[in-house]
Amino acid sequence: MHIVSVNVGQPREVIWKGKVVSTGIFKQPVKGAVAVHAENLAGDGQADLRVHGGPGKAVYAYPQEHYAYWHGLVPAELLMLGAFGENLTTAGLLESEVRLGDCFRAGTAVLRAVQPRQPCFKLGIRLNDERLVKQFQDARRLGIYFRVEQTGVLQAGDALELVERSPYPITIQDVSDCRYLPHPDVALLEQIIRLPFLPPSWRDVFVKQLASAAI
């Protein structure tokens, strides 16, 4: 497992559907060492801090392996590293294999996997097609958000070393599937809401899903 590309970008204003929208989704690959702060990478920023950024979404990683799936769906000229707004484009770090709570060393930083992505309309802005937001959600190739356990520096080419395995056998993919499959596994949902690494916003969603299932 390793980092293929490190991508950062500051918020910018764009015109979308006749309105001015501020978004930080336009990330570009950078060379050399990049500092990992508690809530973001150096040189990176988010526009709407109510739903983006913060400790639970400090670093967003997206598997390079998923790019092949998007060929033909996303225009080739837009399908560059960082196309999905990820800070880290990775190899070998798949949602189906990473457990919620797993810790990885990346360069001198330590990152803990805490949640999948919940795509918003700004992904449609980045890829110039609002339909891709739902396609991204339905494909359940959502990538991984990390919390920073230890600040440091990282760069493209650095290994991603598993340094602490979560004691709970629930993967990031399990969380995505329970959120977006039409008929989630109720037993799995009950396990997920007990996980100490699950962010409160996800727990609230799953508690509501369980309540609906009971009705």
What do you see in this structure?
The protein has a single domain (2-168), classed as PK beta-barrel domain-like (M1 Pyruvate Kinase, Domain 3, Beta Barrel), CATH 2.40.33. Helices cover 23% and strands 27% of the residues. It has helices at 67-70, 122-127, 131-139, 172-180, 186-192, 200-214; strands at 2-8, 12-16, 19-23, 28-30, 34-36, 59-63, 88-91, 103-106, 109-116, 144-150, 152-154, 160-164. The chain has an eight-stranded mixed β-sheet with strand order 4-1-7-6-10-9-8-12. The chain has a two-stranded antiparallel sheet with strand order 2-3. It has a two-stranded antiparallel sheet with strand order 5-11. Strand 8 and strand 9 form a beta hairpin.
Task: Please render the helix and strand layout as text.
Layout: E1 2-8, E2 12-16, E3 19-23, E4 28-30, E5 34-36, E6 59-63, H1 67-70, E7 88-91, E8 103-106, E9 109-116, H2 122-127, H3 131-139, E10 144-150, E11 152-154, E12 160-164, H4 172-180, H5 186-192, H6 200-214
Parallel strand pairs: 6-7
Antiparallel strand pairs: 1-4, 1-7, 2-3, 5-11, 6-10, 8-9, 8-12, 9-10
